[in-house]
What does this fold into?
Amino acid sequence: MTIAADARELQEDIVRFRHELHREPEIGLDLPRTQEKVLKALDGLPYEITLGESTTSVTAVLRGGAPGAPAEKPAVLLRADMDALPVQERSGVDYSSTVDGAMHACGHDLHTAMLAGAATLLAERREQLAGDVVLMFQPGEEGFDGAGHMISEGVLDAAGRRVDAAYGMHVFSAMEPYGQFCTKPGVIMSASDGLFVTVLGAGGHGSAPFAAKDPVTAAAEMVTALQVMITRQFNMFDPVVLTVGVLQAGTKRNVIPESARFEATIRTFSDASRERMMKAVPVLLQGIAAAHGLDVDVDYRGEYPLSVTNEDETATAEKTIQEMFGESRHTRWATPLSGSEDFSRVMAEVPGTFIGLSAVPKGADPQAAAYNHSPFATFDDGVLADGAALYAELAVSRIAALAGARN
It folds into this structure.
């Protein structure tokens, strides 16, 4: 049987595992219940397991047993992130989160379940593998840099040498028709940085602003000026996306507060724009503060780098998708997404690619469906077997190609 056919035989098991994960979401780098579930799913399979030291990550290495393997055996990494979001679920599915204020709103439960399914498929083909497979079950993708932690603890060298290729996958609850696999060579997702600003003034009575130093109006001006700066200092064809998600000041309407603060997320699509923003933003904000006679503390934090896929590995993934599922199931994105990913850190170290998979509910309008991170986001279980099959096939076919080239 083919990998795809075998994956369909596992569909019910993969769905059951996904629902177990969905009911008990965990946030950040410490996911003990999730780790326990993953270890249970791998129990009895011939994997060498390593647990994270600074996180609850799971690294599983499958040693290929094919005769005639090259002296320098190839190794391929497959990654799934496992963490959830601080979102109160409102999807209405019968396996909804039982944890107040936490939800798998980004589909990481599907990623984990698909990779666990691939683990079984690959274990069944161990004697056909002329190389090794590294499974990377990663916590803390949602802003905690779990990939960075796992890289520092050696996941890329878990097979005893640096992996030759790496593949990640991400499901979407909107945007593309159900079951569509999506790729893009080069920049596929933006870099992400955080901006944390505190405007320092002098409090006073609301009736006499001239006798105080009002940080609120200066903060408001800064929020607007940041958007204007982007349109006037940056090329529209190398976009910058800045969104202020936190704006806080004051305790009462007739009191001028001592300070005001705001936080923003900044997305850039080139290293040049990213570096320029890091320099331009503090200059702008400090200038506005000075004009108002105020002080400002600007904390610009670099977070995730650009997600840049390797052209050869992307071509490999595209060929595999089309051979397994037909050309109609594949879309090549013309432009990158403005979301960000810490799998970018893996692709910065080794050749790799990142694949989108639409889990929009069957029959739903992908343009109107609730998007990832929404409390209403729903992901169709129907894609699970195909995702598991693609993970496994990428490892099998890439190892075969690499081993053939080395013999």
